[in-house]
Structure formats: structure tokens, C-alpha cells
């Protein structure tokens, strides 16, 4: 289970991304980027955030800590913008937070260098989870203390928006044409050798176990949250089992 904290102070909106997360201080005296359960993207964006983020951490990738955050909607009184107030009021109760990296810079592929090995591992991970939100236009990458950090995975695992068609996703090729790290000659062959053995049913099950039950209740076609978790594990196992022809084919020359 993810560590649980309670929001005690609303600080400011983080005006990036469609969900516009909020910066909050929790009762552990740390800051978190809170992903609203009442945002337009719905609870499945939070499911994807947890499942993909925990898989990434399990693969050794630099994903900041994810936590469960309890939010009292009364904190909305300190936000002057009505639209954000309404989103906060709709998000009372359980939400997901990402550890805030103070002083972090937004990644710009023209300003920062990434070695081919790390670029390959990030691209392999994004291809596994079908991450459509890591383009050079919107990398969802931060640089903190000189290190790359991966954030915002709510737009991946799109098969869960239509479970009847989910089996077709397991072989769907990943388009890396606009990927933020494509210009760094990602070493996908080395990444596949290193990460495929780690991408096990045990890893996927451990990550799925961290999805709060609240976000999996009443899923059409499933009897319980554990049944939904098992479906996620089966999907990911089928995708990684091979042949991994969903991995992108990259040009030999950097972009």
C-alpha cells in the first residue's frame, strides 16, 4: 500500500498539464503535487498514475514517491479561482500525490543531455505502458539535482478505458516519433536485455496492489477490485511476454 498522508495546507495550483495538479503541504511537513480525484480525467488517470509509476520505480527508473493524500475540501476556500475551487471540492477524500521536487527544472531536450542507456530504459518503459505523453512538446520530465525524474503517467495504459478491446493493446506498436528522448540515440537493445527480466508478474502484481480500492470499485465487467488488478497484471504480462514487436524501431542517427 502507498504511504498515506493528509493535506493540511493548500499552497498553489501547478499550472501545467490538463489536470492542473495542486501543490499541497501534508501532515508529514512535506510538499506534494496532488492529482485530483475529481478532475475531468477521472479516477482512471489516478489508477494509471499509480500503476505505471510503481512499475517504473520497480524497474529502477527515477519516479518520485507516490502517496495517498486525504483532502478536506474546506481547503478550497484559500483558492481564488472558481474553476480550481470546484475541482478541489469535487476531490474530497482520497487523492494521489507525487513528492514535490523543490528547485526542479522542466526538461528541455535542447538544453540537457541524456546518455543513451538511460534514454533507452525510459523509452522501453514508455513503450511497455503505452505512454502517449512524453513528447518533446510535453516531456513530463524534470531535472532535479542533475538527475532526470519521470512524472505524470495518467495518460498511459489506455486499454483500461475500454476493457472489451484490451487484448488488442498487448501487441500495439509504440510510436516514438515525437518522444522527448529520441534524439539521444536510446539504446533499446540494452534496455530490453536489462528490463524485460525485471518486468515480471510479481512486479506488476506488487504495483497493482498499491492502487487504492476506491479507484477500482464498480468497474463494469468486474466483481471486485482484486479482479480488476488481476486484469491489469494479465495485460502487462501478455505485452512483455514477447515477441516484443511493440518496441519502436529507431533511426541510427540522433534527431
Write structural notes for this entry.
There is one protein chain. The protein has 255 residues and is of the alpha+beta class. It folds into two domains: 4-99; 105-240, no CATH class. Helix content is 27%, strand content 17%. The chain is built from six helices and eight strands. The longest helix is centred in the N-terminal third of the chain and has 16 residues, at 43-58. It is globular, with a radius of gyration of 18 Å. The model has no long low-confidence stretch (mean pLDDT 93).
Proportion of residues in helical segments: 25-40%
Low-confidence stretches: none
Number of β-strand runs: 8
N to C succession of SSEs: EEEHEHEEHEEHHH
Count of folded domains: 2
Number of helices: 6
Task: Give the CA-CA distance, first to last residue.
Answer: 41 Å
Shape: globular
Radius of gyration: 18 Å
Largest sheet: 5 strands, mixed, barrel
Amino acid at each position: 500500500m502507498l504511504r498515506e498522508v493528509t493535506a493540511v495546507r493548500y499552497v498553489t495550483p501547478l499550472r501545467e498539464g490538463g489536470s492542473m495538479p495542486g501543490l499541497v503541504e501534508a501532515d508529514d511537513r512535506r510538499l506534494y503535487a496532488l492529482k485530483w480525484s475529481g478532475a475531468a480525467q477521472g479516477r482512471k488517470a489516478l489508477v494509471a498514475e499509480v500503476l505505471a509509476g510503481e512499475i517504473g520505480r520497480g524497474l529502477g527508473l527515477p519516479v518520485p514517491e507516490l502517496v495517498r493524500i486525504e483532502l478536506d475540501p474546506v481547503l478550497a476556500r484559500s483558492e481564488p479561482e472558481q474553476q480550481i475551487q470546484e475541482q478541489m471540492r469535487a476531490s474530497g477524500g482520497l487523492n494521489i500525490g507525487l513528492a514535490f521536487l523543490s528547485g526542479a527544472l522542466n526538461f528541455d531536450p535542447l538544453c540537457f543531455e541524456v546518455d543513451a542507456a538511460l534514454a533507452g530504459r525510459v523509452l522501453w518503459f514508455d513503450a511497455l505502458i503505452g505512454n502517449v505523453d512524453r513528447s518533446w512538446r510535453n516531456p513530463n520530465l524534470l531535472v532535479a539535482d542533475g538527475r532526470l525524474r519521470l512524472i505524470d503517467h495518467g495518460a498511459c495504459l489506455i486499454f483500461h478505458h475500454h476493457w472489451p478491446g484490451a487484448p488488442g493493446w498487448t501487441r500495439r506498436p509504440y510510436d516514438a516519433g515525437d518522444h522527448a528522448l529520441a534524439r539521444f540515440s536510446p539504446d533499446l537493445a540494452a534496455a530490453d536485455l536489462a528490463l524485460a527480466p525485471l518486468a515480471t508478474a510479481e512486479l506488476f502484481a506488487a504495483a497493482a496492489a498499491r492502487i487504492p480500492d476506491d479507484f477500482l470499485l464498480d468497474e463494469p465487467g468486474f466483481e471486485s477490485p482484486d479482479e480488476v488488478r488481476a486484469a491489469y497484471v494479465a495485460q502487462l504480462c501478455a505485452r512483455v511476454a514477447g515477441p516484443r514487436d511493440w518496441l519502436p524501431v529507431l533511426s541510427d542517427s540522433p534527431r
